[in-house]
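Structure (tokenized):
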């Protein structure tokens, strides 16, 4: 049976909408000038869900331009955790199935990964833009021999306009990823907060470069 990609994408968006509304149980694990990262145990799998909140000194449109999950987008240029990004199937204007590959990380302890996700892009009435994703299978994406297949559980980014501050954007992100393979939990627990802080730092630089 064909997977209901649109339904899965909407469910992922609804799930991270719930995370956004639910302040309880988050424990801080990393804080920089750009982002505060906290976590709690995931209800989706045996790992953690991470919440990252930061303010980027740029208009929401510019932040969105840097993070939106589209073919030929800017993400592969600035995000050190994204090596390659391709749209496997465009389900609709808002929903696509995508394959992302990541380079080895953490002093090569983490080997290259691949992820196949359905991605939803959405804009809300207040101008907030959302990109949400969750893992799926797709006939054109069998597991590749040189990669470990990882799984993203409902995750995504909200680009939120700040009233009265047109040149600032609140970026609220949720990450919950099963990296697959046989990684010690200590490695996983160290990798994500550092990786998320790097994401915000590199995004801040990318947005500045975009505006320059």
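Design, position by position:
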């Amino acid at each position: 049976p064909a997977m209901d990609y649109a339904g899965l994408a909407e469910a992922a968006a609804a799930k991270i909408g719930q995370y956004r509304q639910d302040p309880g149980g988050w424990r801080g694990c990393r804080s920089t000038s750009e982002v505060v990262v906290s976590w709690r145990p995931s209800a989706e799998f045996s790992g953690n869900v991470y919440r990252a909140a930061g303010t980027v000194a740029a208009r929401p449109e510019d932040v969105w331009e840097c993070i939106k999950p589209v073919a030929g987008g800017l993400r592969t240029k600035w995000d050190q955790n994204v090596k390659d990004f391709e749209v496997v199937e465009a389900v609709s204007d808002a929903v696509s199935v995508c394959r992302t590959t990541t380079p080895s990380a953490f002093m090569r302890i983490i080997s290259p990964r691949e992820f196949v996700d359905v991605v939803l892009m959405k804009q809300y009435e207040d101008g907030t833009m959302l990109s949400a994703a969750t893992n799926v299978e797709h006939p054109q994406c069998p597991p590749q021999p040189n990669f470990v297949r990882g799984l993203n559980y409902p995750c995504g980014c909200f680009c939120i306009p700040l009233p009265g501050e047109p040149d600032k954007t609140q970026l609220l992100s949720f990450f919950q990823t099963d990296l697959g393979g046989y990684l010690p939990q200590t490695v996983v627990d160290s990798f994500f907060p550092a990786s998320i802080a790097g994401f915000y730092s590199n995004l801040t630089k990318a947005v500045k470069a975009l505006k320059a």
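Reviewer-requested clarification: Helices lie at 5-21, 60-67, 75-78, 185-211. The chain has one domain: 5-19+26-48+64-163+181-211.
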